[in-house]
Structure formats: C-alpha cells, structure tokens
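Saturday, quiet lab. Running sequence design on the structure tokens for the scaffold JK sent over.
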C-alpha cells in the first residue's frame, strides 16, 4: 500500500458505522457516514489483503496512486455526485488518462503512451463522484486470442482466481471485475462484454452483472472487439447498486455514434420502478433450452421459479428463442473481420510502438515465453488474414443476418408470440476447475442471444451448486433495462440466500 493510503487508515476508528467484514454495497457506503478518504483507504486495504498477500486473487492489476488525493479533493468540494467517494474498479481495457496504464492485460501495450482522455464511461464515473481505485485484471485482449485460452489469465496480471474456490475459474473476460466485487474489495466494478464477458463471470462469482443494450453506454476509449456487440456495464453486489451505476454511465456520447438513440431512451434513475411488487403480473417466458443439462442447476432454477410465482409473476413455460444458433454462427463469421478493423483504428489513434494487430502478433511471437506460455494466438492470426473487399463484404452480410436473426426474428419474436415482459433462464453451470494446459472447460453460459442482438441481459445470484454460485438471467427487448432491473430487484428482495459469501476470510 502506498504511503498516502496508509496515512488515511488512522481515522477509521472514529467513523459512525463499522466496516462490514465481507465488503460494502454502494448503498451501505452512502449511508455509513464515512468520508470519502476513509472509504478509499478501506478499499485499498482490502485490495492489499486479498489481491497481494497469501493466495492472491490477482483480481487487480494495479491501484491508482492518486486515489487518496482524489478522495480528499472530493471531501473539500461543495457539490457531491450520486457516487460521491465510492471506490470503483474498471477493467483494464478502459482508457484512463492518469498514472495507470491501459493494456488489455497484454505486455504489448506497456510502452504505449497514456491515453489522451478517459474513456467516456470513466469520465462519467468521475463526474458522478466515484473514485477510480484501479484497473481490474481480465482475460487478455478480452479473450479473443485463441480457442484454447484460459479465462481470467493475462500476461500482465496472471490468473484471476474465483473467491469462492481458488481452484475454480472466475470466468471471463471481466474476471477481475467480478472477483474483486465478490471478494468485497469494492462495491462496484465496470466490466465489458462482447458475448458473455459480464454475465458469465458475474454468475460464476456470485454477483450481479448487467450487460446493457448496445448503444446505451458509450464505448469510446474502450479497447474494442466489434462495435455491434461491445458494451460496458456494471458489476455489483446488489441489483440496486447496478442500477445506480448504470444511471451514472448511460447516455449519448458524440464520440460513439451507436449512442445516438440513447438520448431519448436513457433514464436519470434506473431504480424508478423498484418495488417489492414489481413482479406482480409480469409475464416471464421460461427458456429451458438455454438452461443446459445439469440437473443440479435445474433444481436451483425450479426453486427460483417458485419464488417468482410467489411474487406474482405469470410464468410461461416452453418458450424458445428462434434462430439462436444460426444467429451465433453468423455473428462469429463477421466478428474476426470487425475485430481487426476496430483494433487497428484504436491502436493507430493510441500511438506507440504497437499500432496494428500485425504488430501485436509479432510482439507476442518475440515474447512467446511470457505471452504464449499457456495458449497461442490462432484467432489473432486468422483475423489478420481477413483482409480485402471480399472479407469486408462477407462480414457486412453476416452481421446483417446475425442482427436480424437474433433481434427481430429471435428475442423479439419470442416476446411477441407469448406476450412476454422478459425471458428467464439459468445463467450458468457451476465454475469448472482451472487447467492452464487445457484451457477453458467449455462451461455453459446463456449469453449468446442477447449478445448477438445487442439487447440487455441481467444476471443475479440464484443459489449454489457444488458450493459454487449459479445465476438467474432476465433477458429483454432493446432498451428494457428499467424493467429488467425492477424484476431483478424484486426477486432479490425475496431471495435471502444470495450467493455472495466468499472463501476470503482475511477481511
């Protein structure tokens, strides 16, 4: 811990409410009476205890050396934002124009110049009064390097461990964001998702994760994969906290043309419909085809369905999302071509020794002992080969097909046919055991339809299987975050056994 943070520990004893051992929620922090410097000091202490000492979770790549000074400045300011003094981690693919690096977990960007400006999400968090505490580890390059990759591993950050069982995967690619929140280091973190990278680690680590509609939250200043599916979103301990963070980061941004429709869609407060009765009369479609084959998960899901019925929801069984497999295949056909174009644009604007995907491939080959120690870069190489007019035309055609099949002819069709307010399913199978030599075990996550359509997806803790958390998913039409969050909050209020306890006893 740096000297500035250590100096802030002294006043903690005089605060009005004791720090919870397992970590704060945003609401608890706001109600605690603790000044911002003490909240930040407590978070830095938790990061040091859980991320650096003993069996480190390796959830945080680096902490912000300016965080204590920022917190002191917030206490002196007259205006106080809705996230005043709240320490937040951001995934290490979000630009920060400060002393921290932005690397996507890769050694290739360690010598890149610092970004000239914050990512728009980071700027909005700061404007709301949040303190950017540090950068969270991730699956390197957001897990688009090799089909044999291990989620949660990056050359810069090492392997993020699951706080519930360090032998198990934290999933990815927002692995560090999920693990840090689950372990109680911070009440909130920002993750990013292209397909499953928020909802999968959130479910596997037993927290709340929201993948917003593509275009609700700006992607400006975020290392990209594809503009058609990429989005940032909140990862928190409660649904209410996810809504508070979304309220701060959503909105139109001239630097991201996809957000032009958000101007008329965004809410100032995404908790506006929260009520214990929010599920009363809601028509929810059960998509059993996305729940996998694990009977233990099915058992936990049935208990969740019982709670939803008791809350007044009308459950419609036998619902299917048409064309979901065809949509996923078409999206994958387009993605590698889109990735090469988007990454080259980002790296070219960033500057430094690595300016193209080809440069990254060459760097990895030159530093193979560190970068390619556990898996290769087959997908990078394939993406680099996707050049020329034919590749571009094929990608455009495939993407158009994917959007149509996943959205209007997929999720929208299912909602319309059964007159539904949302779709529900079990989010994930329990996290598997990590094996760096073999890569990911292929555990199921119900992420594809919402990811390809660019529609919102909320996951929250549903229970445990084999001691590991499993999540409950709410999927909806574009721009339906308000409704999904209200449903999730109402379920959470009736579900006291949230899977938020961790194996971390250091706090």
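Result came back. Writing it out in full:
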């Amino acid at each position: 811990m740096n000297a500035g943070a250590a100096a802030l520990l002294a006043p903690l004893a005089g605060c009005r409410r004791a720090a919870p051992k397992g970590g704060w929620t945003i609401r608890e922090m706001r109600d605690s009476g603790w000044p911002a410097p003490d909240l930040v000091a407590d978070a830095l202490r938790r990061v040091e205890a859980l991320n650096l000492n003993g069996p480190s979770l390796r959830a945080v790549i680096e902490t912000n050396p300016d965080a204590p000074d920022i917190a002191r400045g917030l206490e002196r300011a007259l205006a106080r934002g809705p996230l005043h003094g709240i320490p937040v981690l951001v995934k290490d693919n979000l630009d920060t124009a400060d002393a921290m690096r932005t690397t996507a977990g890769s050694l290739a960007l360690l010598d890149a110049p610092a970004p000239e400006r914050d990512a728009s999400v980071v700027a909005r968090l700061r404007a709301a009064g949040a303190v950017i505490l540090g950068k969270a580890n991730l699956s390197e390059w957001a897990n688009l390097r090799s089909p044999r990759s291990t989620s949660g591993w990056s050359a810069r950050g090492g392997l993020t461990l699951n706080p519930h069982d360090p032998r198990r995967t934290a999933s990815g690619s927002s692995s560090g964001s999920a693990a840090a929140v689950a372990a109680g280091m911070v009440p909130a973190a920002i993750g990013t998702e292209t397909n499953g990278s928020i909802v999968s680690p959130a479910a596997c680590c037993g927290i709340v994760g929201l993948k917003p509609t593509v275009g609700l939250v700006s992607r400006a200043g975020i290392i990209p994969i594809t503009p058609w599916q990429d989005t940032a979103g909140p990862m928190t301990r409660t649904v209410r906290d996810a809504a508070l963070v979304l309220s701060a980061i959503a909105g139109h941004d001239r630097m991201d043309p996809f957000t032009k429709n958000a101007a008329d869609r965004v809410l100032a407060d995404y908790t506006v419909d929260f009520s214990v009765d929010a599920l009363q009369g809601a028509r929810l479609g059960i998509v059993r085809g996305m729940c996998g084959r694990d009977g233990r998960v099915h058992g936990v899901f049935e208990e969740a369905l019982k709670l939803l019925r008791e809350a007044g929801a009308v459950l419609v069984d036998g619902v299917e999302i048409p064309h979901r497999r065809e949509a996923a295949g078409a999206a994958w056909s387009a993605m590698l071509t889109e990735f090469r174009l988007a990454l080259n644009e980002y790296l070219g604007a960033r500057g430094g020794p690595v300016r193209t995907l080809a440069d990254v491939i060459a760097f990895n080959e030159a530093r193979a002992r560190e970068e390619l120690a556990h898996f290769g870069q087959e997908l990078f190489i394939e993406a680099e080969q996707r050049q020329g007019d034919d590749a571009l035309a094929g990608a455009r055609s495939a993407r158009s097909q994917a959007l149509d099949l996943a959205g209007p002819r997929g999720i929208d069709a299912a909602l319309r046919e059964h007159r539904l307010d949302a779709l529900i399913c079990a989010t994930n199978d329990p996290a598997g055991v990590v094996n760096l030599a073999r890569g990911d075990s292929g555990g199921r996550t119900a992420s594809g339809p919402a990811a390809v359509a660019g529609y919102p997806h909320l996951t929250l803790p549903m229970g445990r299987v084999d001691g590991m958390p499993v999540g409950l998913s709410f999927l909806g039409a574009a721009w339906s975050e308000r409704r999904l969050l209200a449903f999730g909050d109402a379920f959470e209020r009736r579900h006291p056994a949230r899977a938020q306890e961790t194996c971390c006893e250091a706090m």
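Notes for JK: The longest helix spans residues 389-417. The longest strand covers residues 457-465. Ask whether to fix the surface positions before the next round.
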